[in-house]
């Protein structure tokens, strides 16, 4: 079952068909469901087919008790209902609030978490040679673009020295808990550059340096 199908909302009629199956101690045929709901069997069959394709209902052939074709019956798939609302932003607020309560330690933990994910998310180079600063900055901005930051790379004297982040995929949370979310963003960039073994480091992040962008500062490392 795809994530889209898991979250697809059910119409009142389709919900009624599913609830009828859930309330039955044994699998039901199309006619039995139709009789209980007082609707045409073709209507029930249409909704049952959709529920089967979404993985919410199982279709089986009942063992025949005599001659003739086996009867097709349907049963609700056991498990939590995946059609309800999600509250992921509330979960994020709970976790951010807990980190924020730790004071400076919460920001440090956010940086470390960001570094771990930056190492995981960035696309690495072949191990033949270390990347140049420009190549590493390109991989960094590609990762940030995939995450929804709409980055724009800036250069001085031909070397990358800043990245404008023109969109924040966690904007409301950053406005509420910037002391946690913004260090997390900086950690993402630091972890990605470290994983690339880049001659470049993300040294500082200015939240909302301009009304429509945050600014990450880059610097060449001593090794470069």
3D architecture notes:
This protein is an alpha+beta fold. The chain folds into 2 domains: about 5-75, Winged helix-like DNA-binding domain superfamily/Winged helix DNA-binding domain (Arc Repressor Mutant, subunit A, Orthogonal Bundle); about 90-220, Trafficking protein particle complex subunit 3 (Muramoyl-pentapeptide Carboxypeptidase, domain 2). Helix content is about 45%, strand content about 20%. A 4-stranded antiparallel sheet has the order 3-4-6-5. A two-stranded antiparallel sheet has the order 1-2. A hairpin with a 2-residue loop joins β3 and β4 (about 160-165). Mean pLDDT is about 90; it is low at about 1-5.
**CATH class category label of the largest domain:** Alpha Beta
Number of helices: 9
**What is the second-level CATH architecture of the largest domain?**
2-Layer Sandwich
| Morphology | elongated
Instruction: Report helical residue fraction.
Output: 40-55%
Strand order, main sheet: write it out.
3-4-6-5
Helix-strand pattern, N to C? HHHHEEHHHEEHHEE
Major β-sheet profile: 4 strands, antiparallel
Structural class: alpha+beta
First-residue to last-residue Cα separation: 48 Å
InterPro entries: ArsR-like_HTH (IPR011991), WH-like_DNA-bd_sf (IPR036388), WH_DNA-bd_sf (IPR036390)
Pfam families: HTH_20
Protein name: Helix-turn-helix domain-containing protein
Organism: Streptomyces tagetis
């Amino acid at each position: 079952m795809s994530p889209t199908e898991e979250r697809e909302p059910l119409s009142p009629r389709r919900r009624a068909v599913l609830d009828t199956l859930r309330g039955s101690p044994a699998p039901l045929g199309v006619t039995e469901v139709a009789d209980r709901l007082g609707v045409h069997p073709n209507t029930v069959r249409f909704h049952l087919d959709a529920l089967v394709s979404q993985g919410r209902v199982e279709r089986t052939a009942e063992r025949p008790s005599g001659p003739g074709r086996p009867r097709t019956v349907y049963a609700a798939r056991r498990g939590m209902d995946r059609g309800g609302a999600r509250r992921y932003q509330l979960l994020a607020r709970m976790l951010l609030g807990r980190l924020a309560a730790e004071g400076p330690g919460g920001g440090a933990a956010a940086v470390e978490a960001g570094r771990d994910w930056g190492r995981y998310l960035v696309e690495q180079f072949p191990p033949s040679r270390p990347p140049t600063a420009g190549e590493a900055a390109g991989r960094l901005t590609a990762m940030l673009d995939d995450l929804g930051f709409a980055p724009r790379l800036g250069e001085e004297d031909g070397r990358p020295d800043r990245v404008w982040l023109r969109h924040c995929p966690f904007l409301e949370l950053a406005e509420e808990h910037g002391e946690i979310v913004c260090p997390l963003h900086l950690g993402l960039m630091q972890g990605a550059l470290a994983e690339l073994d880049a001659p470049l480091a993300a040294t500082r992040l200015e939240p909302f340096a301009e009304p429509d962008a945050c600014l990450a500062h880059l610097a060449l490392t001593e090794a470069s």
